[in-house]
Amino acid sequence: MKKINPAKSESMLQEATSARPYPNETRDSEGMKRRKFLGMGLLGVAGLSLPLANTAKANTAVENFVAESVSISESVSSQSDSFEDKMKMLQKAWDKKDYRLARALTNSLRISEIQAQADHEDLGTPLVGANQFGTVASLPSAWKNWAKGWLYYKVVNLEEKAGIQRKAEPVEVLLSFQATQAASLAREVRVAEIKDGALTEVISQVFSEIRRGAEKICKLLFLADNQGKEKRTYLIFYGNPDAELPNYQSDLKVTGEGYGLDIENEYFTAYLSKQTGQLARLILKREHGLEVYSGGQGHGEPAGIDWAHDYVTEDNFQKVRISLWEECPDFEVVRGPICTIIRRWGVPYSPVHPIFSPARMNMDIEYRFYAGLPYFHKFGHMSALKTFDMVYVRDDEWVITGQSFTDMLWMNSEGEVQLGPVPEESAEKLWGVGFFNKDTKDSFIGLFLDHHTDGFQEPSHNGSPNFYYKWHGQFWQRMPVPKGVKTIPEGAVFHQKNAYVTLPFDTKDGPAKIEGLRKELMNPLHGSASSLQVNGLAKESPGRLARLAEAQDSPISKELIWKALRDVKDPQFYKSDTSIVDLGLVYDVTVRGSVVKVLIAMPHRGRPLGTYFAYGSNVVHPTTSKNILTAVYEVPGVKKVIMEQTWYPGWSSNMLTDDGRKKLGI
After folding, report:
1. Which of 96, 102, 541, 551 has its Cα between 20 and 30 A from that of 643?
2. Residue 69: what are its φ and ψ, rounded to 5°?
């Protein structure tokens, strides 16, 4: 078995990120590396007072970065066309009534917008900044040995303030890292809880990994327990060139492609429309498997149980709906062991689309389905892009065929569950509605966690449940625009966050159960950045953080495998000598005995054949390229090479290494 000297691990990481070692750093008295925050616009520093690096050196680094960026911008302009230039071309095509050309340019503009989002989208201020970190080498020996293979850690505290016990609650935090300290956050990040002096790994999920200047940023989801009124500490480990994508197991199973997914957990199976991505039906996983569905022919579109969002145009002329989308105008999907996220957005369609194509209101809808939880979330944002008149707007509507439920319930503004019809005096003060069957205990309940507006008056909180919608079945709808208001001003935004619950419900214990769940959801665990406080002795932890071949114990050197993959070039770039590692197309390398598996992505669906790099063209001017199989088989000890391809997460320019950026001039 080939051993790698731990002292070489950091240099391996630096090579993997293709950057010079830790720019703009100083060391404190304990050898802790500190880097001056370079003031990248969307990044902030929270929580710690850190020593600053030498100001002159930092300023020089900024100047070099700016100069290099200017040079790169000039290079990019020769290979692409700017948004502004495309807009001019589009206007010319429109003026000439060359509509096919206009459509081609409109599509090219959309591509520019996708790339601009990848390069510039602001995810917010990280909870823990890039220069807030410690080194694993500085940890107590028991913890250092347990985390062997990793170089760095960050500290996150989670505090429960409502006095409610939590079990496996999903927690999302935004984190920033020095780009030279990690090649891939998706591969390298691990989360461990400090409990009674020992470290215990908890299941986690990295998504929305981006590169901004000298920093990498990601969203991190992990599952947290709390007995109530506790503050617990978690270590976020990263910086391990031998790390492999973690293969966490959970009850969350997802099948399908794009947004038309089937999503299953312990409590239900949700089926999303293959046409629109709307929730079409839901099967409750109890003894008889009640199917919550909507039958019939809809309005000419496939029926579903979630009918929002829509509005009726002025003079009651027509209703425009997202349920009329022939396909999602735009969407993003995140898949993982903790949460599957489906976000869709666009303007709603007319019944005779495209004769009428109003663009006055954008609708941005997101579902979140979780492992091990009896509910899912829906977030909604409806934005008025111009001032317009309407009859009504709906931001929540559910239609359920049949008579599966025997009773209705609702929740008042104090968060108390009430049974039966909604009295008139409470009809505009609803914070939850739903149905249940008193015999089977099946239920479907919507909890309204947040409902507010920007640039508009307080929305109406209505949505009384109805048992007999046109003899169809159960139904509720919410119209957030107050009665008598007919105009929505430009800039108005309607926000919502709802949870839809499928817990068994009876009249004895059900109300308290639902009230408690809403209180829990309204008071999530509070995260904060912190320095590490080792109270008492650090204890030996069972097992270790590393899986097989992740702690410098790989039977075949992963350093040599990654080096070999740098000889696999993309022949479509004739002069840049760009490898699949430079491009960030290699997502994972795993070693099991003498077997090596390489997981790759392709840049976009127009190049779907990853086998091109396994078997395809090898000739690149001015160097000679190898394919994946040839390159990896040349590594000593390799007897079998497996190449697999994935589309998740989708590749973007954020995956490029520093060398890749320089070679492509971006």
Report:
1. 551
2. -65, -40
Contacts of 482 (CB under 8 A, 6+ apart): 457, 458, 459, 460
> pLDDT tens digit string along 279-309?
999 999 988 899 999 988 888 999 999 999 9
Helices (H) and strands (E) in the chain, counts: 11, 34
Strand partners, 380: 365, 496
Per-residue DSSP letter, 584: T
Secondary-structure breakdown of the chain: helix, strand, coil percentages, each rounded to the nearest 5: 20, 35, 45
- Give the contacts of 481 (CB within 8 A, at least 6 positions apart): 390, 392, 393, 459, 460, 488
pLDDT band for position 53 (cuts 50, 70, 90): very low
pLDDT greater than 60 at residue 357: yes
Could you tell me the pTM of the whole model?
0.88
Amino acid at residue number 456: F
Given the structure tokens 């992740």, which residue do they identify? 550
Amino acid identity, residue 634? E
* Structure confidence at residue 536 (pLDDT): 72
- Three-state DSSP string of 631-664: HHHCCCCCCEEEEEECCCCCCCHHHCCHHHHHHH
- Nearest CA to 493 among 542, 547, 450, 435? 450
Provide the 8-state DSSP code for 503. Answer: -
Above 60 in pLDDT, residue 51?
no
Beta bridge partners of 205: 221
| 417: pLDDT strictly greater than 70 | yes
375-400 pLDDT, tens digit each:
999 999 999 999 999 999 999 999 99
Torsion angle, CA of 151/155/156/157, rounded to 10 degrees?
140
Q: How far is CA 442 from CA 125, 290, 300, 350, in A?
A: 42, 8, 30, 36
pLDDT recorded at residue 168: 93
- Please say if the pLDDT value at position 329 is more than 70: yes
C-beta of residue 327 within 8 angstroms of C-beta of residue 302: no
Cis status, amide bond into 354, omega within 30 of 0: yes
Q: For the stretch 107-135, what's the b/e string if a residue is b when 16 or more beta carbons lie within 10 angstroms of its beta carbon?
A: ebbeebeeeeebeeeeeeebbbbbbbbbb
Whole-number CA gyration radius for the chain: 27
Does residue 661 register a pLDDT over 70?
yes
Helix/strand/coil for 623? coil
Calpha distance 339→366 (Å, rounded): 12
Helix extents (H) in 121-261: 141-146, 185-188
Quick one: pLDDT band at residue 243, thresholds 50, 70, 90? very high
Question: Are the C-beta atoms of residues 199 and 543 closer than 8 Å to each other?
Answer: no
Question: Which residues are CB-neighbours of 452 under 8 A, at least 6 positions away?
Answer: 458, 459, 495
Structure tokens at 240: 């391990």
At 10, the pLDDT band (50, 70, 90 cuts) reads very low
Write the CA distances from 179 to 118, 138, 312, 313, integer angstroms.
16, 21, 49, 50
Cβ atoms 309, 384 nearer than 8 A = no
Question: What is the distance between the alpha carbons of residues 629 and 626, in angstroms, rounded to a whole number?
Answer: 8
Report the distance separating Cα 223 and Cα 167, nearest Å.
8
CA distances from 84 to 91, 103, 105, 107, 114 (A): 11, 16, 12, 14, 15
> What value, to the nearest 5°, has the Cα angle with vertex 414 and ends 412 and 419?
35
Phi and psi at residue 164, in whole multiples of 5°? Answer: -115, 130
Q: What is the pLDDT averaged over residues 112-134?
A: 96
Greatest Cα pair distance in the chain? 79
pLDDT-derived band at 346 (thresholds 50, 70, 90) equals very high
